[in-house]
Amino acid sequence: MAVAWELGATAGWSLVLCAALLVAGCVLGLRLGSGRGAADRWALAWLCYDALVHLVLEGPFVYLSLVGNIANSDGLIASLWKEYAKADARWLYSDPTVVSLEVLTVVLDGSLALFLIYAIVKEKHYRHFLQISLCVCELYGDWMTFFPEWLIGSPNLNTSYWLYFWVYLVFFNGMWVLIPGLLLWQSWVELRKIHQKGTSSGKKFR
């Protein structure tokens, strides 16, 4: 059976909007990270994109879900979430667990991302504390979004079409597993270096 690769207009515009946010995040992050190491520049690019997604896309989703639901809402952002809901129907009718997680994501994760951008740019001592906190929150959000659904047989997920499964579910959600995982590793390495440096300095003065 041939696989249909055509994109509908709504799917196309949704992907264009997501791509525009990614480009904006990368441009802003790389500019803020000018003169810093490659790891920090790309971390800033991700964090700017992360903050934009939480505030520009997920913020309106929370509002529309609290005053009604996405199914009965109009506008560009509502259309984007209606498109995503073709892969995960919980986003269409204000599922309490999803909305609760998104409130936490917008308020806590969005704020942490902005504070972390500041901490990296200004080289604050609490940078890795914020980075670890944000990454744990992002991973927790993905876990609580999908694991309870998996336990009941994933009745709300549509994996029958390549776009819904590989792009909407795997790629877009996988980004918030892979990249926070890499940032956690970066924090681990940097904190270990600081500890080793402090330990070595202490031995010299004994």
Task: Write up what this structure looks like.
The chain crosses the membrane at residues 12-30, 42-66, 98-121, 128-146, 161-185. By secondary structure, this protein is mostly helical. It has one domain (9-197). 76% of the residues lie in helices and 0% in strands. Helix 4 (96-121) runs antiparallel to helix 5. The chain has helices spanning 9-32, 38-67, 76-84, 96-121, 127-151, 162-204. It is elongated, with a radius of gyration of 19 Å. The relative contact order is 0.10.
SSE order: HHHHHH
Strand count, sense and barrel status of the largest sheet are: none
Strand content: under 5%
What is the first-to-last residue Cα distance? 74 Å
Report the total helices. Answer: 6
Summarize the amount of helix as a percent range. over 70%
Membrane topology: Multi-pass membrane protein
Family: Belongs to the EBP family.
Pfam family, one: EBP
Keywords: Membrane, Transmembrane, Transmembrane helix
Secondary-structure topology with pairs:
Blueprint: H1 9-32, H2 38-67, H3 76-84, H4 96-121, H5 127-151, H6 162-204
Helix pairs in contact: 1-2, 1-3, 2-4, 4-5, 5-6
